[in-house]
Specification:
Blueprint (H helix, E strand, L loop, with lengths): L4 E3 L5 H24 L12 H4 L9 H9 L3 H7 L1 H23 L1 E3 L5 H18 L11
Antiparallel strand pairs: 1-2
Helix pairs in contact: 1-3, 1-5, 3-4, 4-5
Length: 142
C-alpha cells in the first residue's frame, strides 16, 4: 500500500468498483449515443439555453466535440470545445485512478495540490467562457 493511501473498510470488490464502473458505463452510453446521432444537425439534441440567450457557456459545443472525437476528428473537436478536448485526458486519468483505487480497496489522502489545481481549473474555465464570447477570440466560440 502506498503511503498516501489507506485501506477502506471491508467491502466486497464488486461493491467498491460499482460506482466507478456505473459512471464509466453511463459516459460510454452517452458517447455512443453522440456517435450515432449527429449533434451537428441543428436541434438534434434540443436547444441549448445559453446559446438561445446569445452566448456560449463553457459546455457549448461539447456534444459536437464528443461526436467529432468518436469519428477521429481531433481538430474539429478542438474547434467545437477546446476546454473539453484539453480536459479529456485528465478526466480519463482520474476515472482510471478511481477504478484502480476501488479495485485495490484503497482511498487516497488529499494532496496539497488538490485545491490549487481545482482553483486553477475553475479560473481557466471562467476565462475560457469570457474569451469565447469576445469577438476578438471568435476562434474559441462553439
Amino acid at each position: 500500500m502506498l503511503p498516501a493511501q489507506v485501506a477502506l473498510r471491508d467491502d466486497t470488490r464488486a461493491r467498491r468498483v460499482s460506482g466507478p464502473l456505473l459512471t464509466i458505463a453511463g459516459l460510454g452510453a452517452a458517447t455512443i449515443a453522440l456517435a450515432l446521432r449527429d449533434p451537428h444537425q441543428r436541434g438534434s439534441w434540443g436547444l441549448c439555453p445559453s446559446r438561445a440567450l446569445g452566448f456560449d457557456c463553457p459546455g457549448c459545443g461539447g456534444l459536437r466535440a464528443v461526436n467529432d472525437l468518436t469519428h477521429g476528428r481531433l481538430l474539429d473537436a478542438a474547434s467545437s470545445n477546446l476546454y473539453l478536448v484539453v480536459g479529456l485526458p485528465v478526466a480519463v486519468y482520474l476515472l482510471g485512478r478511481w477504478v484502480l483505487d476501488a479495485w485495490r480497496g484503497t482511498e487516497r489522502a488529499a494532496s496539497p495540490l488538490t485545491t490549487p489545481l481545482l482553483v486553477t481549473a475553475g479560473v481557466v474555465l471562467v476565462v475560457f467562457t469570457v474569451l469565447r464570447n469576445v469577438p476578438a477570440f471568435g476562434w474559441l466560440a462553439s
